[in-house]
Structure formats: C-alpha cells, structure tokens
C-alpha cells in the first residue's frame, strides 16, 4: 500500500480567497468571541505587514489600518474539505479525511496515472487550478504520509524499510502525536521520533497510555489506521457567499467560473456528467433568483459548463443585489464521452460541435437549434418535425420543394405556368386536420419554380406552399 | 531550335511576363456543377473563404446551386449549419437531392444575431459549411466572416439581395443568380483570376 497525503495548510483562507478575484489586498480571517477576536489566518500581503495567526485583532488593527476581514466559518472549511475529497476520489477509490488533509491510496492508481513524479505533478496542477495551496508526500502508511507532508513537501517514501529512517529525524512537535505526550516527551529528553521509537514499548504504554503506542504502530504500519473511506454524495451542492453585495451580472462571472470548475472536478471524480443544474442567486430579502441551466447532452467539461451557465446568466437582469450564489446539481446522469474520428479532418483547435451548439443555445434561446426529420405523415405541414426521434424510412419520389413556407399563402401574381402535376393529397380526415389539395410544380413570371396547390379539379386560386430554390 | 532556346532565355531573364504560368490547382471543393467549376479559377468553391451569392428574389435556385455541395459534405459526415433561412428547409426536398439531414443544424437567429452566430460557427472549426441569410451586413461584417472562415477552415455562404452588387465586398467569390431568361449564374468577382464575362447557364431543374 502506498498513501499520498495532500496537506492543505491554508484550507480556510484559500476557500475564502478563491471566491474573489486575485488581488494584493491584505485579508485576514477572524474568529473567537466578540470580546476577544483573534486573527485565524492571514494572506501573504497581511503577513508581510506583521499579522499572524493567533494575534489579537486589536493588535492587528494597530499594525495595519486597512485590511479586509472575513469571519472564519468552520462549516465553510468543512465544505471545501469535502470538495477536495471528491476531487481526490477521481484518482483513488480509497480516500480518507484527516484534519486539514486528504489521504489517498495510490499504489494501484500509479498503474493508470504513471510513475509517482508524474502523478504528483498531476495532483499539484489540479490543486493549483482549484486554487488551494498544498503540500504533498507519499509513504507506505497514511499516517506517515500525513506526518511527512507536514515536514517535507514533496517527500516520497516508497518502501516500509526506509520509512523508519525517514521518520526518525522528525521532531516530536511535528509528529502529530497525542497532545499530552507531545508536550511531555521533549522535557524528558526525547526530541525526535527516532529516539521515541527506540524506547521500550511496555514502559511507554505504562506512562502515556495506549494511544501513543497505537499511534506509533500506525506510523510504522504495524497496525492499520482506522479510517472511514470517503464516498461521494449523489448530488452536488456548492455555495459562495460574499460580504458585499454584487449588483452586476459581470461581477458574478469569476465566482461562477469557480463553481462550475468545482462541479467539473466533482463530476470527473464520480465519472459522471450533468445535464441540468440550477444556479440560485440569493438576495437580502425575498426568494432567490433561480437560473436553470440545461444542456442537450450530459457534459462535464469545465469550459462547457461555464460557457452554458454564463450565457444563461448574462441574459438575466438583476432586480436586487446578490449576496450569495449556490450551484445545485441533482440529476447526474452517466457521462458518455463523444467519440472522435481517428482521421478527423477538422483543425486541431476546433471547438467540439456540442460545445458550439450549447454556446448558440445559450445566447439565442433553448429552441434556436433545430434538427428536422421526416415523419410518416403525407400532409406537407406535418411531413417534417424538429421533435427528437427517428426519421421515417419512407422516401418520396414525387417532386418536393427545397423551401417550405410556414403556412401557405395566396398567390397574387399572374397565373403561373404549370410544369408538373397535379399530385393529389387528400388525407387527415381522422384527426380533424383533413385536406384535399392538388399540388402542381409551376413557374412564375419571374422565373421562379414554385410548389402551389389549388382546390381539386380547379386550376385557379393558387396557394403558394414552397419554392424549388 | 535556336529560337526555342532564345525564348527560354527571355523567360529566364524575366523579360517576358508569363501569364497564368501554372493552372490553379484543382479545388477540393467542387461545386457539383461542371460548367461552373470550369470557369472558376480555383476549379470549385474557394476553400476556407467566403462566397457571396446575390439574388434577385428568394427561391430562384440558390439552393440548387449549393445542394450538390451540401450533399457531398453531409454524406462524408461533416456538419453543415443553416442560419436564419428565409423559409423552412423542406426535408423531403433536401433528402431527395442527397443531403443527410441529420448533419444539418438549423439555427433560428434574430436579425442582430445572424452574423454573430455565423462567425461562431465558422470560427469553431467543427462545421464544414455555414449558410447564412444576414439582413444587413456591411463590409466589416463580411470581412469578419471571411477571417472566421479562414480560421475555422470552413466554407461560408452568404445570401444577399442583388441590390448589394454595387457595394464592394471582401468575399473571395461573388456570384449573381439570374432567373430570366433562363436560370444562370454570373461571376461578379473571383479571387485568383478575372471574372469571366458571360453568364453560365445551369441546367434548370425543379425535380
């Protein structure tokens, strides 16, 4: 077994930063009771000004006059944590959640994603794209990977033999041991994990209880780590909230890109697609504005999802400022990737046809793209439809025009010259749409070939129904 | 024999201009009308370029002109997009002329969105041909379509009223359809050669 650990040292802060456009503005997360507010996390510009975690807010305000303050929300942090677990699920079937970290079993994933250095860079690229700072380590046990990720970013220990060697120089304070042991051991002269592991087990157990020994066994792999394996939920729900109100749709584009990106990452992990999702724009008062985004087929490409959602959103006129946005996807049908011809002649940068259709639909309306097909009905008005279905196999050998008028209208010009006909169409008595017509192919005085009809047996009162264009 | 050598040396010295030294390569996009192919400098539709078709009225054979090309493309499983047609395409009529309707997307767009939609389709590179009926298109708009057709390596066809013939156009090929006395097509402009003087009569057909 090999476990990769993705440690997220700034999970709460990254969760807040990724919902706002990149900027150099100092920002801190604050927590604690109203009387004793402390800095929970500070972004790099704020840290450069001397702010640090655990600092009193009053002290921070004395150091820096202008900075953005966001209330730390543990639920929010947990949500990002779960999102990253969903993302990791794409790479491994066994994903576990540790505090501020996600561990995944990768020994079998390596066959698919390539040797560890390549796999590691895949993980890092994804995390960078998602906007989370991270440290990655690999070890034969999840706990060792967790400890190593905290100490050496990028460390990879492939075999249990050298694991002990890699663990021994680690200071007790960094070894994620039970707190009372971590506090007592250095004062007893035990400063590194190596020293600790060399001590007799029996006396350790007597002095610190079973927890420390069990922890050491989990580190070295002598005892399996009890862990609840992550299972992705069946619906996707992600919410973003701002401290300020957003009045223009354009300002929603950046958060929207994040939300659709998260949805795409989640879908890739689940190997699913989405055909329909909802964007709920929440206001200070009143019900939220719900925008439903539907697509022709299930998709999961981040650009496609973003394009579709953006098109729908841009046509929206905001009546009230938006304070939060929620993306909700309930129906997650299986994803069937579109097949592409090996000898495809299209340019390499071509936009897939599906994506093009979605883009057109997003701007021109849901019903703007039609595929016409033949039906079995001989009546010209009902002989074709744009409803989905299978085209009828019956072929017509009689002359048919290339343009069809929406509705026949009376011909006002001089009587046309008859080229062919008549073709009598007399049917439809059973559904109320009955008609009796003699169709002719005619040429008008302007030289156009037209498809006209008149009452059976007559050759006058021409009705124009199509053009042989 | 001596004179032949002299002519060669004249040509080598670039003292004699060699008009149309090499015949233009055969286009890979024949129009399906041998008479028309014969007079077009490219031997067919200009590839990856805009073709403008000027009409005296709707329904004078503009589709007859294109349907052989559309049939060839759709049967090769290439996509064709028809944007804002003046009437509904009649499926039976198109299929009788060999077009596979499953490959044809009909886009209903408002007056203001026709050019936008045409440009998106051309630029995407996933359509083999785009047919558009813009209501108003100026020189700049057509140039954009020309550039988009080049980017997406597609055939672009724009149908406009005959009264626009007097305006300059960036299209690589301009054809004018005439329905009287017979059905014929006149080349107004073609890239890579002088437009032929006479009109080309095409076999009129309603079937």
UniProtKB/TrEMBL annotation, chain A:
Residues 24-147 form the UmuC domain. Keywords: DNA damage. One of its GO terms (biological process) is DNA repair. It comes from the Bacteria. Pfam families: IMS. PANTHER family: BLR3025 PROTEIN, BLR3025 PROTEIN-RELATED. This is DNA polymerase Y family protein. It comes from Dyella solisilvae.
TrEMBL record, chain B:
GO terms for biological process: DNA repair. Keywords: DNA damage. The keyword DNA damage applies. InterPro entries: ImuA_translesion, P-loop_NTPase, SulA_CellDiv_inhibitor, UCP037290. This is Translesion DNA synthesis-associated protein ImuA. The gene is imuA.
